[in-house]
Amino acid sequence: MKEEVLEADVLCVGGGIAGLMAAIRAGERGAKVIVAEKANTVRSGAGATGNDHFMCYIPEIHGPDIERQAERSIVFLEKASIRTKHYVRTYLEKTFAIAQLWESWGIPMKPTGKWEFSGHAVPGVEMPEYHPLKYAGLNQKHVLTKEARKRGVEIINRVTVFDLLRDESGIIGAIGTGTREDTVIVFKAKSVVLGTGICSRLYPSPTPGWMFNRSDPPSTTGEGRAMAYRAGAELVNMEIPRRWAGPKYFARNGKGSWIGVVRDPANKPVGPFVTTPDKRYGDAIGDYYTSLFEGYMKSGKGPVYMDCRGISEDDYTYMMWGLSNEGNTSLINHLNEENIDIRKHPVEFMTYELSTRGGVYYNEKAETSVKGLYAAGDEYFGGMSGAAVMGWFAGDNAAGYAKNSKGIETDSVASHIEEKKKLLDQIRKREIGATWQEVNIALAQVMYDYAGLVRSESLLEAGLSYVQRLKKKAYKEIIAQNQHELMHCLEVLNAFDVGEAIFISALERKETRDDVVRSDYPFMNPQYNNKMLICKKVGDKPLTEWREKQ
Amino acid sequence: MPPIIDKGKCSACGVCADVCPQDVFWGSEKKQIPVVSYPEECWHCNACVLDCPVEGAIRLRIPFPMFICYQ
Question: A440 is in which domain, residue-wise?
Fold first, then answer.
């Protein structure tokens, strides 16, 4: 395998919205920036083919009282929120500036000519929680890639970073390998920004036997969490699940772009918010009753439909335009091919597969608990503007940190690097063993059966031991015939650490909360209110800790 | 299996292979009509269709399990 050593002030791991925004800002500050991207930044990550809602606070529209806005923000109020008011205030205050930046770069943030808010709303309720600015993000990744390059950012596509380098001072780089070329790259970096996205493929998909039918992109596999965890950084609330909903079997996020009424089989609206389709609102019942589609099926009351019958022509055009910008063009094409007119035919929705809402803990400066390591975007759930704004802060602060940092010396981690190179070599050279698919399916079935929606100490302890046993076996037996398969092998090996952190955290959450039932603790424990659950490795030992949010 | 390339229309520019987030076109050669090496890894995100410079040269075929359930 060809070896290369590259140096940077700021290394962005993942070139999604967060990674590119970090790169753009760090580049502006004069840092030498490298973006290492598994795919191609022009179409990678959860924003690859677009988004149409950007949480945004505009004082002229929403009122000047930002303290009130922060208190009522969904980021502050969300289930098991880890965000302090200070964090939310800092973030909200920046959202409009970033939206204006995007507009100036050519991402249409006011495509109708004005700052327009629609969807995710409830009639008669002022909703500072969401403030969903409707925008046209279809080509956002092309635009952000161009802006990063303008600022001298070096983008290296088709390289997967799979481990961090750390010495006593903190993070000093990372190691990656080509997803096409037989290369191994050692990145010596003064600071690293993680922006690898959500953990897709950790649990089984909505379609048995079809691993890539996912609500989140199957290329985002939670590697940032795994790398951070091994480097000793704090993860937070890993046991809290995250699930989305959308068209049944055509797993695709974007529920908030639909303009219809969620109805049961007798045509009765499931929620109290709307009775006719209206672009101002959509039907927000799915935001407030996230497992409703699954709940109705399980109880026999389903199926549940997104019913757009009665929509005005203007609202229909607006919805299709919104869905296109939300990255749902293939869904629209398929509806057309199948002659399904959603103005006439209600479409069944489902609650999609499990993932984790938790992730790498980072504060309002995008700092993690390890020096030199920053994180943004879906390293911990934050939505589109969360990725954009926190990515910007991550780049700003990582560049500042790098400025004050001395040169990078990686001699102290030479053996670690050698060990990782050996791992790559072994996986590529083994002739007999387990494909990455085998291993991924094995992990997902354990996650589903033992860290699903009903949990208990005995289930979790058994599941944890299976995950740890499978991980050991996988490191010895997994094989790759080429670099593409090697990328998947590394994703799965990293996913074991994410799974382990979920089990360890779930064991510690001795209560029933949100969608997760602990059958041995069938009550919500108010002692956990306003607290977050930290999981981190000290040496090789994983530890958990409850910490006050404020 | 998605995606499907119309060989009569494809200009072999390689944009689809260049942008695919899943790299389903892995192993494609430059200036050749791309090959679909990993069709089962397609997420049907439509990036290849959106960025293809030739109308109709590439399309997605949505697999059976992803059929739309409607009334």
Answer: 414-534
